[in-house]
Amino acid sequence: MADNRALPAFTVFTITYRRTAELGRLFASLCRQTCKDFVWLIVSDETNDATRQAVDQWREQADFDICYVELTHGGKTRAMREGFRHVRTPLMIDIDDDDELVPHCVAVFKEAWQAVERQGRADIGMINALSVDDEGRVVGRMAAQSGCEDSDYITMEWTRGCAAEYIISRRTATVADAALFDDRGTWLADRVVNVRESVYWNRLARRWNTRYLYQPLRIYHTAGASRLSAQRFDRQKCVDYAFSNYVMLRELRGRWHENCRTTLKYMAEWVYCVLRAPSILVSLFARREH
């Protein structure tokens, strides 16, 4: 029998990898949402019986739909690319598996998108809101204390230096319109596992503006972030950083002068990665010879 239920407005999109306990905390925050106009899409970057069993239990408890996609381990970038193919709603909310949404998160995003539509702002492709840490402090440097403003990622974070941890809601169509994952023919593209997410935000910013809401809608648990930053620079991480920095520097070439400090940081990281993994440099010379 066909399912005639109305499609929700949002897909809450989560990629997970061996974090069943943290994912349960996120599930609890979704259960507390004052607006349930969403489906939760979980993409597991590994076959994980514990996560699958937990999802089966949560489906019986939840008053919202849960879609679970399981992949063989291939890294976050591949999981993002594959996961987007399962999104059917017009809007998305990205949330990490070890973080939480505040209870009014979905409701605020829904109201904000309705305001964008009333204003006829077809140029707004994303709405970003702030994150607070475990102690309730805003994470990062924000541009204002309250209200909202319209800008774009490159201007806000690259030029103005307002680098905060945001929770992001986007029009689903932006993924295709900005050719988010189109790296065909790019150096190292066939070897990269985890592309730095700032690459994607840069690409979106060239096509879409962002509305920044200066209110916290996400609880950002720093323990998870610390685990990621502590990962050592092995050969694969060097490849990932070399590729990401190469792409960012190439795509921001006309705006290097707006943030010389970060430009030099990207260049230094690129050199470091090449020295740690000489095969990267060999592949670059081989590419130029062809």
UniProtKB/TrEMBL annotation:
Listed EC numbers: 2.4.-.-
Gene Ontology MF, one: glycosyltransferase activity
Entry keywords, A to Z: Glycosyltransferase, Transferase
InterPro entries, sorted: Glyco_trans_2-like, Nucleotide-diphossugar_trans
SUPFAM superfamilies, per the entry: Nucleotide-diphospho-sugar transferases
Domain called Glycosyltransferase 2-like: residue spans: 11-114
Top class in the EC scheme: transferase
Keyword Glycosyltransferase (UniProt): yes
The protein, known as: Glycosyltransferase
Organism expressing this protein natively: Hallella faecis
